# Entry
Amino acid sequence: MRLTRSSFAAAFLLAFAACSQGGTDATAKPSATQPAVHPISGLPIVPLTVKTAKGKHVFRVEVAKTFAQQEKGLMFRTAMGPNEGMIFPEETPRRAAFWMRNTVIPLDIIFIGTDHRILNIAANAVPYDETPLPSAGVASGVLELNGGRAAQLGIEAGDLVTW
# Structure
């Protein structure tokens, strides 16, 4: 098919418009049909709030729901923003223990009880250390933040966590 100058211009504009729509953008805002996802892990991102004596602190956390997602967690990650983290919800609450195998950055590992209150915090967990860090009771979730962040914000046992 032979294109005239005007049909060529029209075809070019249509092609350009098609290419400029529907691309992926990690900074794009989620819609009701498209939740936010982390650009590295591909996990959904949700807001999480910790209510402390000093006030509320809101984080954007990746949700590791499946066994495979929880097994990998933040392994091999080299950086995380100050208000980012990962939540590991427990479908069946249990006594939990985490380790730092293949985890490059220090983490605060925050164990959350069935009442959504913090049971205990394994602060500044050492990268690559395989020593189990246990919960102080039955946990319904575990939150990981950058090492030292909990102390910096005054987050402690008994604080309320919602997500």
